[in-house]
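User: Assemble these into one structure.

Assistant: Restating your components, then the assembled model:
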Amino acid sequence: MLRFCVSRFLQGIGVILAVLLITFTIVHLAPGGPFQREGKQLSKETVERLNAYYGFDKPLPVQFLVYLKRMLTLDMPPSLTFKGIPVDRIIRQAFPVSLSIGFPALIMALVIGIPLGAAAALRPNTLQDRLSTIAATAGICIPSMVLGPLLALYFGLHRRWFDAAGWDEPSDWVLPSVTLGVIYSSYIARLMRGSLRETLVQEFIRTARAKGASEAAVVLRHAMKLACLPVLNFLGPAAAGIITGSIVVERVFQVPGLGQHFVSSATNHDFNLALTIAAFFAVLITLFNFVVDVIQALLNPRIGFAE
Amino acid sequence: MKWLISIVIAALLVAGVLWFDSVRRNRPTRVEVATREGILLVGNGSEPQTLDPHLATGQPEHEIFIALFEGLVAPAVDPDENAPGVASSWEQKDYTEWTFHLRPEAKWSDGVPLTSADFVWSFQRMLSPDLAGEYASMLYPLKNGEAYNTGKIKDFSQVGVGAPDAHTLRLTLVGPTPYLLGMLKHYTWFPVPRHVIEKFGKMTDRDTRWTDDANLVSNGPFKLKQRLFTHSITVEKNPYYWDAKNVKLNGIRFYPIVSDSTEERAFADGQLHLTLTMPLTKIPEYRESHSPAFHEDPLLSVYFYRVNVTAKLPDGRPHPVTDKRVRKALSLAIDRESLIHNVLRGGQKSAVGFVPYPDKIGYPNAPKVIHYDPNEARRLLAEAGYPDGKDFPSFKILINTSEGHRTIAEALQEMWKKELHIPVEILNQDWSVYLQNQQELKYTVCRAGWVGDYLDPDTFLRIWKTGDGNNETGWTNARYDQLYDASTKEPDPKKRMEELGEAESILLDDLPIIPIYWYVHDYLLSPDVKNWRHSVLEQRCYKALELVPSASSSPK
């Protein structure tokens, strides 16, 4: 167990460094720069001065090392777009917001997705299966940029249960969470249906039934344990994605979350912010994947902590 | 018994939903509450990139700065008119030597007196090469302003700014600038608090913490109360403002709403008094229902196409668009009315010249020559050697990736094909690549826009001078340069306009650009807001605004 953790930790650091290096290369390869804008063009001298001020006139490897050093010493560089705001302050402000939308969405995705998928798998090719499959497919097909505005129109403008947009009232997380949750629950339902159906025809299930275990015990105690593994696998990266926010949901509901910065930092050539966000996301993904691996090993003795 | 419990549970559930529904439905909207409290709720596009007026370039920042700061001159109730600001009066000689008399009672929002030395220091900061303020060129009308900004002179005392005493400011300009007063309402000319900035760093340090909500000190009708990053910026009445008794609002809250559809929904939900913009798809609906909230006002901006007059064919010969007759034919073949009414549907105005709305900026000499005449277009094209578009080499319209630009390019592609039989393709590129190719003249025809900074044709015509960084067409015309330069030295306003008019006529005869339409500003405004006047520069006079509950302020 300890060896597993240490090796995973070292691998994680490698992954994060690789992500940083690749992101760094890509943002610098992309044409244009942080000081380019429409209309009034900056003079060459001004751009040169700005580059010198932010250290972008140095060779790229040096810039990368300087950046790494700043990160390690927690001396975060300022955002280039939002002048005067250190990038860590942006993340510290936006991440809790994304988390408070993403976490309920994740719970909702599980609470709806798993039973829905299981219900379909238990009675294959019946009406129950068809209905749940239709629901899941619909959930996958409707993009959040359609579902979000629909929810906002009905529950916001029409019924006035919730604010159509904004992040002011305690209930403002509901509609964005539902939008996110519905989509993820559909994925989970489909995964669950497939994997439970596969599990139910396996030998050990037949053995359990033959031993006289009740159907509920067979499904809950034996089948579900194994059938949840693909869902768990999906959940690692998905959870990291959900809690770091979605630009679409944030734009539709005017939520000050982290998702918007993923996209805008890249399009604005805000090197500092883009790199920090990539690093943050890499850390989350690595962490979640690690947790998933541990849970999987605990659930499935065949996997174990072996290398 | 079991069914009874089920029924009771179901009944409780239904009752609960009905109760929730009625409670939520009857809650007051945020606008209703804010109107009572005297807080104006404003949709403001995107999160401001800075709260330092010397580092800003965008419109969201502009709308906030004019609440927080005030220059020598302030917007009047009609924001395009000028009213006294920090300066209570002024006089000028030949529009070149200006003397401003500052109010002795002017103070910063922390109570520190505001003097002419603050202005001198601020202008020096704005023009400092080391600050690299992106908008420093706004101060180039000052004598030696450009030389100081580009590092040619190091001694700021040579720049045309002087403070003979604490309440007098003297500006010496490069040449006669009759539009100076309007320019002074731009945030680049605003004073910034030296006593605060120097607490957090040097004069020319960027990114210091002086703009944090705890530190920012300003001199306008409002002061910063709270900045919630990407959520809102709240300003409150500044008790030290010289005209505080006439400020009617208690505060303003700016929401950075990027999506125009979300902004429109927030308005319909009763969350905003004023939107920055609105989705194109919603305009016909509001227009046809004669909604009192819907406003459509002219904006001092022009949408046009640049033509690269140095473009070459692959074999090295000059591209046909380098022939002025071809450019004229392209312009004459555009049915702008049809484009606006059938495609854009946003109420834009067909461009008849390059400088938009000349009557709104006192420019009687504006040439009005751009029009639609397909027959003349065909004649000119034939004269240039391409009768009926025969053998005309295909070229590309360069646009940056955007649905709106594509739609317009497609409409023009169709018109040029139909009227002139010219094959045209559309090339869309990512924002920065598009900008780069435009600057390096690696295009044939490309879409562009220009927004005026002050109420004078100069803001549109200066960019076509030979070598101007924003020319980007390769076009050069000695007579144009001569006329433009003469206009910058002309003390007689009438004659100056004549020179600018003649210069624009040359521009529109040579057509290195194809003007397409003049912008309008479509937005929503709650009837609760009184004394609102629209400005073609999107200036606002916040201190005149008042909130009075009106019957129709509840959501639709």
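The radius of gyration of chain A is 24 Å.
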